[in-house]
Amino acid sequence: MHSVFFRVTLLLLISNVLRAQDEKPLKAADYLLTLDNSRDSLYKQVIVGFERYLAQHPEDVDVRLEHCELIGTAFYDAYDDYNPLEREYTNCVEGIISDFPTNHKVLLYQLAHSWGDSAVTVANKILEMNRSDPNSWTNQELSIAYQKLANTYEYNGTPDQVIESAELAQSLNDTLDLTYLLAQQYKKKNLYSKATELLLSSIDSADDNLMSYNKAILLLELGVDKKALELFQLIQKDTTLYIDNGKIAQALIVNEKYSEARKYLLRDLSSSYDKSAVLHDLFVFDYQHSPPDTLLATYNQLMEESFHNDTFGKYRFMLLFKAPFRGWKFNDIFKLVLFLLLLVIPFSIPYIYVLPIDFISRRFGIENDAPALKSSNWRLTDFWIISSFVIVIDVLVWMIFNYPDLLSTFFSDMYVGEENKISLNQANQAIAYFFLMLIMTLGYLKKTDFRVLQSTEWKIGKSIGLGMLFAFLFRTSYFALARNGILPGLEASMLSSVMDYLKSINQYYHPFLAFLLAVVIVPFYEEFIFRGIILNSLDRRIKFIAANVIQSALFALLHENTSLFLFYFSTGIIVGWMAKKSNSLVPALSFHATNNFFAFIAIMRM
C-alpha cells in the first residue's frame, strides 16, 4: 500500500500538468506514463535520502527497518501479490537480521513477515531466548510469538498445537481474543460443546462485523441456530461485508421464520455466482412452504438454468403431489424413466463381484456344506439380493437428502456447497437410513433364520461375555497402537463415520434415539447382513478365510471412512471368526454393541 506522501505528491503532479495545459488534454496513457516516471523519480530521491542517513548512522535499527519497509511496499501490487523489488527487499531484511540477530524489533519484524516453517523457526527462537534469559521479553512480545505460532499451526499443524499456542498468547495478553480460532480447533477435534461454550462466552458488541459474521457461521455449523440468527441480524446492514444470505435463510428456517427466509434466498439468488445451488435450496423451501404456483415457477427457473438440475426427475416427481397436472413437458417423461433406472440398476451391480465368486467356486470345485453358522441356509443368491437392497437404500437416501450431491457425482459442472456437519438434515438422513436398513433386514429374514442366534458350541452367557471382553481388548489395543503412530485412524470415538449423524440426532431429537440407533439397531442389521448372510453364503462356495476377508472388506467400505478402514476391517475379521467358532451371531452382536456403546459414550461426552 502506497504512503500518503506518495499519493499527495502524485496528485500535485497531476494538478500541475493539467494547469499547464491550455490546449486539448493528452491521452490517458500519456498521463499514466508521466505518473509512473514521477513515481520512479520520487522513489529514487527518497531512497537516496535513506542511504545517506544510514551511511552515517548504520546502528539506527528503526530507520533501517523503515528503509526495508519502503522497498517492500513502494511498488507492491496487492492484486497480483507481486513486488518488482522483491530481491532488494529480501537483501535489505537479511542484512538487518545478520547485523542484529538478537534485536527484539528486528526479530518481531522478521516474525511479522514470515510464514509457514520460517514463522515457526523465528517464533521458537524468540521463546528460546526468553527461556535462556527470563523476563528479557515482555508479555506483549511473547504473546505475539505465540499468536503467530497458533495462526501458523492452523494450516500446517494439529488442533492441539493451535490450542496450546492460542491459550498461551491469551494468558500473556488479556486484551487478545482468540476464542474464534480456539472454537474452530475444538470443532475439528469434535468437541462441539466446548467450541459452542467458547463462542457464546466471547460474543461481544465490540467485535467487528467480520468477526461477528464468522462466529455466526461457526455457531450455525454447530447447530446453535438461534444465536447465529441474532448475530446475522446485527450485521446485515453492513454493505461492505460479504454475507452468505443462504446461511441466514437456513437459520431463519430452523427458527420457523419462513417469509423472511425466502427473502434471503431470493437475495442470495440475485447475487450468487452459481444460481443452480441456490435454486435447489429455493425449490426445497417452496415445496414445504409456498403455494403450487410459486413452486412451479421455481422449478421452471431451475430447469432454465440447467437440465442437469433435475436429471433423475426427483423434483418432477415431487411436483406430482403439489401440481399433478400442470407444467408437464416431454423431457419430464424421460426424467421419470431415469429415476426408475437409478433404482433398478443397483440390482445388477452385485454381479460384478458375485459372478466371479460363483465362477471360481465352480471352476475349482469348492463346496462347503458346513458354513460358519451351521443352521443357516443362505446362498450366493441371498448375497446378491441383500447387496442390491443395500445399494438401493443408499441411493434412495442419497437422492432424498443430498440430491444435488448425487447429481454432482455424474455431472462435473454441478456445484454443491458444503453442508453443516451438525444439522437437522443430517439427523433426518441418518434416521431414515438406519430404519430403512432395519426394515429391509427384518423383511428379508425368515423365521427360521433367527436360529443363528442359538449356539451348540458356546452358552449364551459365554457368548455375550466373550463378545464384550474382545470388544474392550480390541479397542484398548487399537487405541494404544494408534496413539503411538503404529496404526492409522486414531479417532476419539472409533465411530467417526456416523459421529456427525449421531451428534445431529442428539442435537435435534433426543440422546435416547441416538443410543437406540448406535447400540441396538445398527449392530443388529449389520451383523445379520455381514456375519450372517454374506459370510455364510460365501463360506459355502469358497474357503472361510477368503470369505471372512471379503465380508470384512465390504463391511469397512460400507462405513465410507478411509482413515478407519483398517479398524472396521479388523473388526469384521474378529467378529467373523467369533461367529465361526461359536456357531452363533450372539458373540458378534455382543462385540458390535459393546464397541458402539463405548463410542456412543465418547460422542456424548463431546
Basic shape: globular
Mean pLDDT score:
83
Low-confidence blocks of residues: 1-15, 17-26, 492-496
Based on secondary structure, the structural category is: mainly alpha
Helical run tally: 28
What Rg is obtained from the alpha carbons, in whole angstroms? Answer: 33 Å
What is the number of E strands? 0
Give the H and E element order.
HHHHHHHHHHHHHHHHHHHHHHHHHHHH
Protein name: Type II CAAX endopeptidase family protein
Keywords: Membrane, Transmembrane, Transmembrane helix
Pfam families: Rce1-like (PF02517)
InterPro entries: CAAX_protease, Rce1/LyrA-like_dom, TPR-like_helical_dom_sf
Short description:
This is Type II CAAX endopeptidase family protein. The protein is mainly α and 606 residues long.
Q: Can you walk me through this structure?
A:
- Keywords: Membrane, Transmembrane, Transmembrane helix.
- This is Type II CAAX endopeptidase family protein.
- It is a single chain.
- This protein has 606 residues and is mainly α.
- Among the domains are: 1-100, no CATH class; 348-605, no CATH class.
- Helices cover 72% and strands 0% of the residues.
- The protein is built from 28 helices and no strands.
- It has helices spanning 4-19, 28-56, 61-73, 86-99, 104-112, 116-132, 139-156, 159-172, 179-188, 192-202, 209-221, 225-235, 245-254, 258-271, 275-289, 292-305, 314-322, 330-344, 351-363, 380-401, 403-410, 424-444, 460-483, 496-508, 511-539, 544-558, 565-582, 586-605.
- It is globular.
- The chain starts with a helix and ends with a helix.
- Mean pLDDT is 83; it is low at 1-15, 17-26 and 492-496.
